[in-house]
Each structure stands twice: as structure tokens, then as C-alpha cells.
Amino acid sequence: MKIYNYEKLEVYKLSLQLVVTIYVLVKKFPKDEIFGLTSQLKRAAVSVLLNIVEGSSRSSKKDFAVFIDRSIGSTVEVRASLQVAVELKFTTEKDIVNILELIDKLYFKLQKLKKYLRS
What we know:
CATH topology: de novo design (two linked rop proteins)
Radius of gyration: 15 Å
Structural class: mainly alpha
């Protein structure tokens, strides 16, 4: 099986882990939230991943950096959405502590990659 370049990136692996973790978490959310915060969290998490993938296929570092910037925005969106979920009592701080650590790690690695691509 062929390995694509993006599959070698640590930010890709971390973002894939984030998607899986978010999908597992939102299964516990109220069913009436399926088109609300549940959907938003899933779409934002997938957006982090897919922007990394799409950006990696671009012909220049500058173009790739634009997509990494979008991934960063979606990463922050996931984090903020998790904070909303805690406030609404869909989950607890304890339940998301590992996800927040993953988000922090991913966020700073994306920032570092963006800096590299723009240099």
C-alpha cells in the first residue's frame, strides 16, 4: 500500500487521533444536539485533518501554509466548542482533559509547521 506524504506528518497523525476522540466523545452528548454542537465539533475536527491533507498536496510551501492556518483555526474552534460542551454539562472537564492536551500539542506543532513553511 502506497503511503502519501501527509501520512508521514506528525500533525496528520495527531489530527486523526483528534477526529477519532471527538467522534467517541460526542456519542455521549444529548441526541437533540446531533445537529448542533455535536455536528459542529465533528466538522471542526475533520476540518483540521482535511486541511492538512489538502495543503500537503499544494505545489508551494506558501500555499501549504494557508491550509495549515485553516487547520489552526479549526483546532481552536474544537477547543472552544469543548468548553461550551462543559458549560452545557454535555461532558465534564475530567472527560476532556486528555483531548485538551492533544489539542495543545497539535496546535503548537501546527504553529511550528506554519512558521517553517513561511520561512
